[in-house]
């Protein structure tokens, strides 16, 4: 169907997976609310995904490095996504939702990380921008958020499994056409993986990063509920995600023009400043329409932060452990941060409301920005990072 070196299957995989992921991020809290769960219970369910990812990300990353393949690990995970989601959406009690959610997320959460890791390596092989490949994930996210939001407004959020499976099967079809990554011949051993635990700059960076990523993940979980708290509808939630991810796609697509101008940590600090401003502004709005307008900051926060952090982490880890290191990064970004953001955010939102939650997120982002600035002026933070093909 496609040439063996074509990037079309990889772009389509990113498109379809992130289109399906949009449905979970944007509408799962509303679906759980429809099921009768309160704010704290929703927080527990949303925390299962990040908790599962802490174990799933390094596990699948290690298997990818050990067996020298990303393609076939992706295939297994996508099959698990389809089966797991079908079972997950049949559950009706809190306990069964949590248990089946853990199985579902165990297969689902590594797909984005493995897809981005493959895109990073393919971009290096072809000497092109990682952002021009990754932007297709953002396009899929944006289109899905707008389209599915409108569809669920009509048919009801209880039927969100149907569009989710559509994109899941699309991902399954294109994964067979992927060109696998060319890896070093030396097989990775567990002792090699232990080297990551001794990489102090890597671990310190991940620790400081948590202050920013916790606030980001709390927003992922609760922006839909916040918009409805302010009087918005499911369609408005979809529109908000569409605006945000459209700006994210623009940042990824234009990375080749701006990314090499400064050290990645400079861009991370800039994103931290914008995160702080964004969350404080969200806490002050009283009309959901203003949230839509402020969503243009999503691309300038997540887009810049993710691209810069992914690049910086890539240079901190040995090539032999690229998939493992990337998935440890993802486990921290989307796993540990997601647990804290979901549980803490749900408790704050139920007790004090969405405005207080976003004010707290702004304070946390401010602390993270200050710590990241201190990290950058340290000797290991100031070391130049070798430029890539951005």
UniProtKB/TrEMBL annotation:
Major subcellular location class: membrane
Source organism, top-level taxon: Bacteria
Transmembrane segments: 12-32, 44-63, 70-89, 95-115, 136-155, 161-181, 202-219, 239-258, 265-282, 288-307, 327-349, 355-377
Listed InterPro entries: HcaT-like, MFS_assoc_dom, MFS_trans_sf
Subcellular location: Cell inner membrane
Protein keywords: Cell inner membrane, Cell membrane, Membrane, Transmembrane, Transmembrane helix, Transport
Ranges of residues in domain Major facilitator superfamily associated: 8-358
Bilayer topology: Multi-pass membrane protein
PANTHER family: 3-PHENYLPROPIONIC ACID TRANSPORTER-RELATED, BLL5896 PROTEIN
Protein name as it appears in the record: MFS transporter
Taxon lineage: Bacteria, Bacillati, Bacillota, Bacilli, Bacillales
């Amino acid at each position: 169907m496609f040439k063996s070196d074509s990037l079309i299957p990889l772009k389509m995989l990113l498109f379809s997976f992130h289109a399906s992921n949009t449905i979970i991020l944007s509408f799962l809290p509303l679906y759980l609310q429809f099921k009768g769960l309160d704010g704290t219970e929703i927080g527990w369910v949303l925390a299962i995904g990040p908790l599962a990812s802490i174990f799933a990300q390094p596990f699948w990353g290690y298997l990818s490095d050990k067996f020298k393949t990303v393609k076939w690990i992706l295939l297994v995970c996508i099959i698990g996504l389809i089966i797991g989601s079908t079972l997950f959406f049949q559950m009706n009690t809190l306990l069964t939702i949590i248990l089946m959610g853990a199985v579902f997320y165990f297969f689902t959460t590594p797909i984005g990380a493995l897809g981005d890791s493959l895109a990073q390596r393919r971009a290096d092989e072809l000497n092109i921008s990682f952002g021009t490949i990754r932007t297709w994930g953002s396009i899929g996210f944006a289109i899905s958020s707008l389209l599915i939001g409108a569809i669920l407004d009509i048919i009801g959020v209880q039927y969100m499994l149907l569009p989710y499976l559509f994109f899941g099967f699309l991902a399954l079809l294109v994964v067979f056409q992927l060109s696998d990554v060319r890896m070093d011949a030396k097989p990775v051993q567990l002792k090699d993986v232990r080297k990551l635990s001794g990489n102090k700059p890597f671990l310190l960076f991940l620790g400081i990063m948590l202050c920013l990523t916790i606030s980001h993940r709390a927003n992922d979980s609760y922006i839909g509920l916040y918009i409805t708290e302010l009087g918005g509808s499911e369609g408005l939630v979809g529109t908000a995600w569409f605006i945000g991810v459209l700006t994210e796609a623009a940042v990824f697509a234009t990375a080749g023009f701006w990314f090499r101008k400064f050290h990645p940590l400079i861009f991370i600090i800039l994103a931290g400043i914008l995160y702080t401003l964004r969350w404080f502004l969200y806490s002050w709005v009283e009309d959901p329409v203003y949230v839509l307008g402020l969503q243009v900051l999503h691309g300038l926060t997540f887009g810049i932060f993710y691209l810069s952090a992914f690049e910086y982490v890539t240079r901190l880890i040995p090539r032999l452990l690229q998939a493992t290191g990337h998935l440890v990064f993802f486990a921290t970004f989307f796993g540990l941060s997601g647990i804290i953001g979901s549980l803490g955010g749900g408790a704050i939102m139920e007790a004090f409301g969405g405005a207080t939650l976003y004010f707290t997120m702004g304070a946390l982002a401010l602390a993270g920005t200050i710590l990241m600035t201190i990290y950058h002026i340290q000797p290991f933070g100031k070391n130049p990072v070798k430029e890539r093909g951005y």
